[in-house]
Amino acid sequence: MDEINLEAAPVLGGASLELSGNRIVERDDLAIVSIATPLGGEDALAEALRNGWSLDVPEPTRSSLNAEVRAVWTAPDQMMLIFPHATPDAEAVVQERLGGTGYTTDQTDGWIVLEVAGPDTLSALERICPLDLPSFEVGGTGRTVMEHMGAMAVRTGDDAFLLMSASSSAASFLHAVETSYRYAT
Predict the structure, then answer these.
(1) Residue 14: enclosing H or E segment and its boundaries?
(2) Does residue 124 or residue 5 have the better pLDDT?
(3) Residues whose CB falls within 8 Å of the CB of residue 121, separated by 6 or more in sequence, listed in order
(4) pLDDT mean over 157-168
(5) Are residues 119 and 160 in the same domain?
(6) Cα distance between residue 73 and residue 58, in whole Å
(7) pLDDT of residue 10
(8) What are phi and psi of 64, to 5 degrees?
């Protein structure tokens, strides 16, 4: 029997769109690992995060960033670590640095990440997102619904966001974001 070699492929085929000076890019190079804090383990986890990545535990509706590694608050005692990582061992890498101070789960395949940026970003997103995104400081985060899909938004710059949604509805999510940009101007 012939050997079968499987290779990972971007959910959206590496989508990259330019629309009137705005950009929508699928970030298939990012790993996403959720971290939950064990009961009574807040201090140990905070120290491991500082030692492992020079990151602070993010406050509610915030994220903390060091170089390319971002910790995003998702719920009390929970966060997601988002970082460039090419191989499918992201959870093991995180767990090694945490030294058992947090419960981890690889979420990479469950999410699609779009990086959006450009002068029409806020007006495009206000059409599909009920959050008050203009009030977000850089690093601000929020869970929401965009169109009919669950989503998370992380402000990364004045006119830039990471948008996350379930990979099972990736094509619909991209379509909603792209359509909103097309009518934002």
Answers:
(1) none
(2) 124
(3) 22, 159, 160, 161
(4) 97
(5) yes
(6) 5
(7) 87
(8) -120, 150
Q: Is residue 143 part of a domain?
A: yes
Cβ-based neighbour number of residue 55 at 10 Å: 21
CB-hemisphere CA count at 13 Å for 73? 18
| Amino acid, single-letter form, for residue 143 | R
Report the C-alpha dihedral over residues 65, 162, 74, 123, rounded to 10 degrees.
120
- Residue range 47-96, pLDDT digits in tens: 999 999 999 999 999 999 998 999 999 999 999 999 999 888 999 999 99
> Is the entire prediction scored with pTM above 0.85?
yes
pLDDT tens digits, residue range 17-27? Answer: 999 999 999 99
Element (H, E) at 63: strand 63-66
Residue 126 lies in a domain: yes
Residue 39 in this model has a pLDDT that exceeds 80:
yes
Dihedral angle sign, alpha carbons of residues 160, 52, 85, 164: negative
* Residue given tokens 């970030």 in the structure block: 27
DSSP for 86-112, written as a single string: -STTHHHHHHHHHTTSSEEEE-GGGEE
Dist. CA 69–CA 63, nearest whole Å: 10
Q: Which residue segment(s) compose the domain that 176 sits in?
A: 16-27+110-182
